[in-house]
Write a structure and sequence with these properties.
Number of helices: 7
Number of strands: 0
Structural class: mainly alpha
Helix content: over 70%
Largest sheet: none
Distance between the termini: 66 Å
């Protein structure tokens, strides 16, 4: 009888463990959406950049990646969104300095699509 009860407790605990939601997995998924990697050469080809623009763009994009990593490290979702909005606005402003109007329009389209695909709410960022 004792063995039967112990086996039942063990089976119950194993089934509860297997169906429990992993809170770390949710946190990792949330952090992964802030992880950006840019192919600078491909971006330069799409935007038809000059060599000088490519160099400046690379440093601006590296700064953007660092800002987004900082946003991922924030504790609350509200603070993450504030830092993300600040990073996006700063990136767009800096890219506006080095790109012409047509390149800048294409860049903003690419940036907005990328952010939407990552699950960011653009209405909160563009405020």
């Amino acid at each position: 009888m004792k063995k039967f009860i112990l086996i039942m407790i063990m089976m119950l605990s194993m089934s509860v463990y297997s169906f429990a939601e992993d809170s770390n997995a949710t946190k990792v998924d949330n952090i992964e959406r802030y992880e950006f990697k840019f192919n600078h050469r491909r971006l330069a080809c799409v935007l038809e950049m000059s060599l000088d623009q490519m160099e400046m763009c690379e440093s601006i994009m590296n700064e953007f990646v660092n800002d987004m990593r900082f946003a991922a490290s924030m504790e609350t979702e509200e603070s993450r969104m504030k830092v993300t909005a600040s990073a996006v606005k700063k990136n767009a402003r800096y890219m506006g300095y080095i790109l012409n109007k047509e390149q800048y329009r294409k860049y903003l389209t690419l940036l907005n699509v990328t952010l939407q695909n990552r699950g960011f709410d653009l209405s909160k960022i563009n405020q």
